[in-house]
Design brief:
The structure is a single chain. It contains eleven helices and 13 strands. The protein has 371 residues and is of the alpha/beta class. The chain folds into two domains: 124 residues, Aspartate Aminotransferase, domain 1, CATH 3.90.1150; 240 residues, Aspartate Aminotransferase, domain 2 (3-Layer(aba) Sandwich), CATH 3.40.640.10. Strands 2-8-7-6-5-3-4 form a seven-stranded mixed sheet, with helices on both faces. The two termini are 15 Å apart.
Amino acid sequence: MNSVYFDSAATSQMRNEVIDRVYEVMKNSFGNPSSTHSYGRSSKSIIENTRKTISKQLGCAAAEIIFTSGGTEADNLILNSCVRDLGVQRIISSKIEHHAVLHTIDELHKNYGIEPVYLNLNACGEVDYEQLERLLQDSSKKTLVSLMHVNNEIGTMLDIERVAKMTQASGALFHSDTVQSVGHFELDLSKVGVDFIVAAAHKFHGPKGVGFAFIRKNSGLQSLIFGGQQERGLRAGTEAVHNIAGLETAFELAYQHLEKEKNYILDLKKYFISELKAHLPGVKFNGACTDEFKSTYTLLNVCLPISPEKALMLLFQLDLKGIACSKGSACQSGSDKGSHVLNEILNEEDLKNLLFDFHFHLLIPKKKLIM
């Protein structure tokens, strides 16, 4: 039976080249990168070369890339230090951010008394840019804007350049969770004035448990994890050299094949939409996911017109047939509260009629495994 994998936004299959690189480094470059002998220097060079690879592609300095365990840790590092060390008193965000941001903002409100402000959203999940501009002009409080580049459930994209210009003009800081866009979109940090972004390797066919934060030079951010002076004092703990090497290979290949794979996946998405419409009258698409200019090419959020009784068994039946897809975010798979994203963008009537929503995350086909 051929398998169909429709859950690549939750995690993607590692490329064979990445697996080979991770294995080679685990076998041959096992030295502690903080050690000064040849084994340590070999490991250290892998880390620094990866930092250079990322910085060259993103248009920033190598010293501005800090390796983390993934997007959640990077988001926590940035938001916590902005409040604790940089004196941020207000965070402007949206209610459809990843919970790594939303729950961190809640904790900062409880522990530091920061003022959380959430932007209005339209039916597609786009933020109210005019409201953001007014908010940035109307307060003397030191402000951090935290808005994700690509929503991980509905795929709606932020106009990151527009927001960067607003924050620069007002003197606010700008953090963007770019976990769903790094490796899938070009981003030139020499031209886009965002202060902080984050990435996770397993979203672009790299290993789990490793990612990075871009922290703009002279930001003043301080470490969230205390110990040694690894990662320029911003992230203590011995680096996972094999994972960082795997991240580098996955990152290089993602951008090397970006245009070809983007075109293929976009065609696949368009075909999928047309087939759903043809065979399932009444199907609905949430957010802006059918608009290729406002939504990522890698994701489709679908509301299927089926009864609640059939919906309960649908995921199970699909899985038995070799089709893997998600109902809600993978991070919330144990929750029965439904999607916090759809709860924010759909009106009461739509929510009442919402029978079953799926997230289809499309990525690169791998032999018998279709992503």
